[in-house]
Amino acid sequence: MASITTAASTDTARVLIAGNEPPTPASLDFAARLRRARLGLIVALVAIVMIFVSYSSAYVVRQGLPTLDPRTGTLVRDWLPLQLPNFLLINTLVLLISTLTMELARRHAVRVAVAARKAFEPSTRIESDRTPWLALTTVLGVSFLAGQWLVWRELAARGFYVDTSPSSSFFYLLTGMHGIHLLGGILALIAAGAASLFRKCAASSAVVVDATAWYWHFMAFLWVYILCLLEFAR
Predict the structure, then answer these.
(1) CB-count burial class (<10 Å; 0-12, 13-18, 19+) for 85
(2) pLDDT, greater one: 149 or 23
């Protein structure tokens, strides 16, 4: 969260101060919109963090709890160790690369918005030579979700389904919930790409891309956290 706030201050300063020029109403409006978008994003991320904190706590606690066997009437340990598929490493690399392309898209969008402000044309449209970073990030995000589907199929081939054991249930729950939230980021990427395609105001497009980029970075961090939880919290 601190990195988002710090980045917000940095980008706002860049927008408001170009050399020694005084800020214009257009730049102040862009900075205010950017700040509101990031504050709204922080609220949404806090809610997501709370969801995964509760899942993590349940995951750790459930490992040490026995369950009642209805056939024998005794308490048994039903937690089966789950070996993570190696393909998860490749999938993680894909997601990490997508954070790089997303950051490049964010910086490009902010530069376009600042250039429009310097020209004193707040309604300046996005130039036709748009960078492919948004499209590439979208492709990588979809590839990550497709990779997750392959991971689930590999686990199913091993005999680990959702209801096989608590360990497999938590794996599908954690990775599935992350996939759903990442899908939301992909939809936001498509919306940002549509704004660029239909030549929306540069400032409006920059706000959308900026918020989506920070959300995407958070999803990558959350994914690494989930992998560490599944691998080491035993």
Answers:
(1) middle
(2) 149
The stretches of the chain forming alpha helices (DSSP H) are 2-16, 25-63, 87-118, 133-158, 166-197, 202-232
The pLDDT tens digits for 153-210 are: 999 999 899 988 899 999 999 999 999 999 999 998 888 888 777 666 778 888 889 9
Cα angle 108-114-117, degrees, rounded to a multiple of 5: 145
pLDDT tens-place string over residues 86-111: 999 999 999 999 999 999 999 998 88
pLDDT tens figures, 114-133: 777 665 544 444 444 456 89
Looking at residue 100, what DSSP letter applies? H
- Where are the chain's structural domains? 2-232
| Cβ-contact 124, 116 below 8 angstroms | yes
Query: Could you tell me which CATH number the domain at 2-232 has?
Result: 1.20.120.80
